[in-house]
Design goal:
The chain is mainly alpha-helical. It contains 10 helices and no strands. It folds into 2 domains: 39 residues, Arc Repressor Mutant, subunit A (Orthogonal Bundle), CATH 1.10.10; 146 residues.
């Protein structure tokens, strides 16, 4: 066991999930790959759920921190920008794409292979949170004197779900990093124009 460190074990664990799915990846199989007793593997990780958390949670923490940073920045825009400029600045920052490609395997796992785990509803929870914070932001826009159209929260959820589907599709469709950046530039133009047309009263 001394030959292998925990990073190597976790890297193989990621490879197994990507190739076979989380449900079909067992502690016994991982131990056999490293020619160690299962009991030795359990001395490092109490379960494959713990291994999954070691793989996913640090990346998710970075993503959430970045998400909150940009959410807070939106409120700063209200003090210095017109309403059109506020919407123009809702474009997906390239920093998010860079993050996904720095941790490509982790995001591939998070988006496709975690049925039955605590991360299974990652996408739906993200959409729900985005809808909640968007409605709060729209309320703040009104308090600042901006005139925006009302939207049915159910409609907003569908739009938000479509936006995140497009955002994460760069991973699901195996685009290169540069192709992903090019796509998001085009999609951001499309989404920004749509949101301005939907919310800004003329």
């Amino acid at each position: 066991m001394a030959k292998y460190n925990e990073r190597e074990i976790l890297d193989f664990f990621k490879k197994c999930i990507l190739e076979n799915g989380y449900e079909n990846t067992s502690m016994r199989f991982i131990a056999s790959h490293f020619k160690m007793p299962v009991s030795s593997l359990y001395r490092h990780f109490s379960s494959k759920e713990e291994m999954l958390e070691w793989v996913i949670q640090p990346v998710l923490d970075i993503f959430n921190s970045m998400y909150e940073k940009y959410k807070d920045k939106n409120y700063e825009f209200l003090r210095t920008m017109t309403l059109e400029e506020v919407f123009d600045n809702q474009r997906t920052p390239s920093e998010f794409i860079d993050l996904m490609y720095r941790y490509h395997d982790e995001f591939s796992i998070l988006l496709s292979h975690l049925k039955g785990t605590k991360y299974e509803n990652f996408f739906d929870k993200l959409v729900d949170y985005e809808v909640k914070t968007s409605l709060e932001f729209f309320a703040e826009l009104k308090k600042c004197g901006f005139k925006i159209r009302e939207i049915d929260p159910r409609h907003l959820r569908i739009l938000t779900e479509n936006n995140f589907n497009a955002y994460f599709s760069v991973i699901k469709n195996n685009l290169t990093h540069q192709e992903a950046l090019d796509f998001m530039a085009v999609f951001s133009d499309y989404a920004t124009a749509g949101y301005k047309g939907l919310f800004i009263e003329r």
